[in-house]
Design goal:
- This protein has 2 domains: about 200 residues, Rossmann fold (3-Layer(aba) Sandwich), CATH 3.40.50.2000; about 180 residues, Rossmann fold, CATH 3.40.50.2000.
- It is about 45% helix and about 15% strand.
- The protein has 16 helices and 15 strands.
- The strands form 4 sheets. A 6-stranded parallel beta sheet has the order 12-11-10-13-14-15, sandwiched between helices. A 4-stranded parallel beta sheet has the order 6-7-8-9, sandwiched between helices. A 3-stranded mixed beta sheet has the order 1-4-3.
- The longest helix is centred in the first third of the chain and has 22 residues.
- It starts with 15 loop residues before the first helix and ends with a helix.
Length: about 400
């Protein structure tokens, strides 16, 4: 498994879904080794928390029973390199291969896998394609972002790299039907399918933990995510501001951090919602799950959301979700059954959804129970692992293309 977006010992919040999927594949009986290439950052230059997570990352780390390798390479997922790589990823990835390819080839020859599983075409799919050319190994790629695929329409060099990877893949997996349709439209020869992400059940010991005193007896809306534009947190605060006066007992709690924090803080100040909108900062995954349990509903109104596992965590906690209708979660979550769908960036619709979710406690309970059933029947990592194992077995039988 090649996954650059993967937790690191000093950044355990990064790519928690990738770790959970790898652990589920291991539980399913697959022998799996994870390689997560990590940008080389000199220790003396590591000043920020993010830089230290790279600079101080060990070569190997044990996540429970799963061993993960973190070899260094000269590819950096930061501006301005990220913007340049979006247009033309080839030169950056070729440099990465020159730097780290020999290590990866030696590792693969030693481990002797049947299949390479790569997350993201424009990074690990490229590496998997190189391994296939050199060693004849079949590979399967999963993509996780609409924008990474859609940008192929704007940038010919990016599209060319995608065509190369797609042409050699045994399967191109999308996490939502919208993503698969986009991939198929841009690359008609791609062997595509949709396999939804999963999540693990909320730990049972969290279910009985009482709310803290400051939110006990209140209506609690919870949201979380990285603070960047597509997540729409200022938009969510604008919508909450329109209903806050009608529900003086309601609070909106948001876990996360990122570049748009000043915009979010400005929206809170503009609407005079200090104390009503509570920014919790970055939280360990277990604490995020506890917030899910304490909440009355989970709300994330960001647009172009591929198939965020945070929605699945809310479903597993038995909470109704409020979500943008253009996201991958709309593949499985039905409006009025498991939560409320809102057209993307539609403020009036968002206000109406928050008003409905806050005013009708019986509906919240009914949708929450349906949400839990949906999770249990369709959206666990065990179910995802079973489907992925079928794809890996088919790829191994065919030996790639």
């Amino acid at each position: 498994m090649l996954a650059t977006y993967f937790p690191k010992p000093l950044n355990p919040w990064m790519g928690t879904w990738a770790l959970a999927q790898a652990q589920a594949l291991a539980r399913h009986g697959l022998q799996i080794e994870v390689v997560s290439f990590t940008a080389w950052v000199p220790r003396l230059l590591a000043r920020t928390r993010g830089a230290k997570a790279y600079a101080l990352c060990p070569a190997v780390h044990q996540w429970g029973a799963l061993q993960v390798h973190y070899p260094r390479w000269l590819v950096y997922p930061v501006a301005p390199m990220r913007q340049l790589a979006e247009r033309n990823p080839g030169p950056f990835l070729k440099l990465g291969w020159l730097n780290a390819g020999p290590w990866l080839e030696r590792f693969v020859r030693r481990f002797r896998p049947d299949v390479i599983f790569a997350h993201h075409t424009a990074v690990n799919g490229f590496l998997a394609h190189r391994l296939r050319r050199r060693l004849g190994l079949p590979y399967v790629v999963t993509d996780h972002d609409f924008g990474e695929i859609a940008s192929c329409e704007r940038w010919p060099a990016r599209r060319s790299l995608f065509e190369t990877v797609v042409g050699g893949a045994a399967a191109m997996v999308a996490v939502s039907r919208r993503m698969e349709n986009l991939m198929k439209r841009l690359f008609p020869a791609a062997r595509t399918c949709t396999v939804h992400n999963g999540t693990d059940p909320v730990p049972a010991d969290l279910l009985g933990v009482p709310r803290p005193q400051d939110i006990d007896g209140r209506e609690v809306l919870f949201s979380c995510g990285a603070f960047y534009h597509r997540k729409g947190f200022p938009f969510l605060i604008d919508a909450f501001a329109r209903v806050a006066s009608r529900y003086p007992n309601a609070v909106l709690r948001i876990a996360g951090d990122g570049a748009e924090r000043p915009l979010i803080e400005a929206a809170i100040a503009r609407h005079r919602l200090q104390g009503r909108v509570q920014l919790l900062g970055m939280r360990p995954h277990r604490e995020v799950l506890q917030e899910m349990v304490w909440a009355d509903a989970f709300v994330l109104l960001g647009w172009d959301e591929p198939f965020a596992t945070v929605f699945l965590e809310a479903l597993s906690a038995g909470k109704p979700i409020v979500f943008a209708s253009d996201g991958g979660i709309a593949d499985v979550a039905e409006d009025g059954v498991h939560g409320l769908a809102v057209p993307p960036k539609d403020l009036e619709a968002a206000v109406a959804a928050l008003d409905r979710i806050l005013t009708d406690a019986a509906a919240r309970l009914r949708m929450g129970e349906a949400a839990r059933r949906l999770f249990e029947t369709r959206l666990t990592w065990e179910q995802n692992a079973a489907r992925m194992a079928e794809l890996f077995a088919a790829a191994a039988r065919e030996g790639g293309r």
